[in-house]
Design brief:
Shape: globular
Strand content: 5-15%
Bound molecules: zinc ion
Structural class: mainly alpha
Number of helices: 28
Distance between the termini: 71 Å
Radius of gyration: 25 Å
Length: 685
């Protein structure tokens, strides 16, 4: 075992930009490094608390914000590898360390000496002569401590600490169980008959998935980028049903990966956590620190959208049924049928066929398109650096230079699905921007799960994949363009119903006709995408909005329902509870939901989105309204609007209260109508 002197995690990283020395890292390095880094952080905290000098912003707040840098870099390397390139050995460390890391965090937030200093500063904050950003830091840090239990009585703090450690263990296990079910399942496609209906790109991806597992033939995994196309195109209804059932039952199989009891215990502990803080339910506690502020505001938005989405869905259903009649099909539409028939309607009514569309969206060109949009909006340039250390050969590393030509950020792009990576798409960081304790430039990573084409073939994206690429890159820019004084306020460390604004807003540029004309060129002929196809894509996108909105809103409603239960009312059977909520709401048949509880990682693989799945819709109100600023200016790259956007949204982090920073960008608060219009849910008056 590596000692403190030889453990590469604990040495100075002499790599370019102090990237983690990935090649030298072994799973057994992480536990000792985490323990040592926590010990050092604890010593830093004690030193702040034990100063004889009275508390000041500099000797307490600024020092706290600059503390724990070693722990932050070790934890970031660890969490990123666990998410993107895991192994049984790393998963073992994850389970082993979840408790101690949570205990460390508890000890920090319940450090009486430290909190006494922060509390004193907070009480006298008006007279400290702080800048607005310093005042914001003080308020946010004070709130972090209160929300983590700093004000609880000592006996309650003990219980609270135990709760947090148990929750950390449970959420870790939950995520690992989902991955286990995803890895365990493969749908083998035997021969031509099983490939019926699948376009070449799905066959190629299914072939590649088999090759990766050392198998012959074709197979479908539970990776979203394979399963969704399979459900969309496969003419084999029996196979679609098998795939759909496996996909939607993740985490619900008896045995070691069963998440049902875990969900139940997480809910019980969260209810208890809320009560300790004096809230009636976990949702009340979670929402107190958001733009929405309370359940009523969230439910008003969800109810309004649900009411509009269900009729929109029924219009789509009628189109599907008409298509089925024309093809002589009589059965009811089941959830494994919806995408298939929707695709047939889309092809007939809008003449959009993914097999026709995808050749215009090769991954490499779409990455270049995202970089080009960032350059035209914000003046930053991305340059590949093939020599930077990365953790997997598929990961690409880039320098981001600002207008003055200085390297202002490092960006890692990890685009392909593999068995060692968790599902979904996300942004994360290895290091966050700050100026506290010297200028630190951010190191940001984007993960996607695109199905990689066979060697020698370009990976082609669907229109939805391109949207995902731009979405995550929008989060990436939020981290990369951050320009604040303190790490706690940096980049994506914003209120959680604000965090999806930069990502969702950036999606708008991928569908700008001007961007498509420039970048969406046919992979073989190099011809730009035809204007008529651009128009058909826009119309076809509006067609699926009822389906997408109902599925999303249904999941947001189950999230709110289950986190709004008072203590003692956690259901014995969480699956039955979920079913009942959807029945009572009148979820239309044949549609399904985005996530069921047993694999709803937003809610149960961590607590960041618990009582918070609504945030995408909340942020969409903001992003649709924000995009209108460019529409009103008559130019998707309008320089004045882009400058305000950079300053008040992408660079501001949490240095300004989000409602206020939005008004600074837009000149007024956001309106609901642009979002409804964007989703085709605005009924003409
Ligand atoms: Zn996002």
């Amino acid at each position: 075992m590596a000692t403190t002197d030889t453990n590469p995690l604990l040495q100075r990283w002499v790599t370019p930009y102090e990237l983690p020395p990935f090649a030298a890292l072994r799973p057994e390095h992480f536990a000792p490094a985490l323990h040592e880094a926590m010990r050092q952080h604890r010593a830093e905290i004690d030193a702040i608390a034990q100063q004889a000098e009275a508390p000041s912003f500099d000797n307490t707040l600024a020092r706290l914000d600059a503390s724990g840098r070693l722990l932050a870099r070790v934890e970031a390397a660890f969490h990123n590898l666990c998410a993107s390139e895991t192994s049984p050995a790393l998963q073992q460390v994850q389970r082993e360390m979840a408790g101690p890391v949570a205990a460390h965090s508890n000890a920090l937030y319940m450090h009486a000496g430290l909190f006494a200093r922060i509390d004193r500063l907070h009480a006298g904050r008006a007279g400290l002569g702080l800048t607005p950003e310093q005042l914001r830091l003080l308020e946010q840090v004070h709130q972090d401590f209160v929300r983590a239990g700093a004000r609880l009585a000592p006996r309650d703090q003990l219980r609270y600490g135990a709760l947090m450690e148990r929750l950390a263990a449970l959420t870790t296990q939950f995520g690992q169980n989902v991955l286990a079910d995803e890895t365990a399942f493969v749908l083998m496609l035997d021969g031509e008959a099983d490939l019926a209906g699948l376009p070449d790109f799905v066959c190629d991806a299914a072939r590649q998935a088999a090759v990766e597992r050392g198998l012959d033939g074709h197979l479908i995994t539970l990776s979203r980028s394979l399963m969704v196309p399979f459900l969309t195109f496969s003419a084999r209804r029996d196979l679609r049903e098998r795939g759909w059932r496996a996909w939607t039952s993740r985490g619900e199989h008896p045995g070691s990966s069963d998440n049902r009891a875990i969900v139940r215990e997480i809910l019980q502990l969260r209810a208890e956590q809320a009560v300790l803080h004096g809230y009636a339910t976990y949702a009340d506690y979670a929402l107190a620190n958001t733009m929405a502020r309370n359940r009523d505001a969230v439910m008003r938005l969800l109810d309004d959208v649900w009411q509009r989405a269900v009729p929109a869905l029924e219009v789509e259903r009628a189109q599907l049924q008409a298509q089925m009649r024309d093809e002589g099909i009589a059965h009811e539409i089941e959830p494994w049928d919806w995408r298939f028939w929707a695709e047939r309607v889309r092809r007939r009514s809008y003449a959009v066929d993914d097999a026709e569309v995808k050749p215009y969206f090769p991954l490499e060109r779409m990455v270049a398109a995202a970089f080009d949009c960032a350059e035209r909006l914000f003046g930053v340039r991305f340059t590949e650096r093939a020599d930077l250390p990365v953790y997997h050969p598929d990961v690409k590393a880039y320098e981001m230079r600002d207008r003055a030509g200085r390297v202002a950020g490092i960006f890692l792009h990890d685009n392909f699905a593999r068995a060692s990576k968790r599902s979904g798409a996300w942004m994360s960081s290895f290091r966050q921007q700050t100026r506290n304790g010297g200028d630190v430039i951010p190191i940001i990573v984007n993960n996607n799960n695109f199905a990689q084409a066979a060697p020698g073939h370009p990976t082609l994206l669907s229109f939805d994949d391109v949207r995902t690429l731009f979405h995550e890159f929008g989060h990436g820019l939020h981290g990369l363009l951050s320009n604040v004084g303190y790490e706690r306020l940096s980049g994506t460390n914003v209120l959680r119903d604000f965090v999806e604004l930069p990502s969702q807003l950036f999606e708008h540029w991928m569908s700008e006709p001007e961007v498509l004309r420039r970048h969406a060129c046919h992979v073989q002929t190099g011809e730009p995408i035809p204007e008529a196809l651009i128009e058909r894509l826009a119309a076809a996108r509006r067609f699926g909005q009822g389906f997408e909105t109902v599925r999303y809103t249904a999941s947001a409603l189950t999230d709110m329902a289950v986190h709004s239960l008072p203590p003692g009312q956690t259901p014995d059977d969480v699956v039955a509870f979920e079913t009942e909520v959807l029945r009572a709401r009148g979820l239309p048949p044949g549609v399904g939901v985005n996530h069921r509880f047993t694999h709803f990682q937003h809610l149960f693989a961590g607590s960041g989105y618990a009582a918070g799945y609504y945030v995408y819709l909340w942020a969409e109100v903001l992003d649709a309204d924000a995009h209108d600023a460019f529409v009103e200016a008559g130019d998707p790259f309008d320089a004045a609007a882009a400058a305000r956007l950079l300053r008040h949204i992408y660079a501001a982090g949490d240095s300004v209260e989000p409602g206020a920073t939005y008004v600074a960008f837009r000149g007024r608060a956001a309106r609901l109508e642009p979002m409804l219009k964007q989703r085709g849910l605005l009924t003409p008056a």
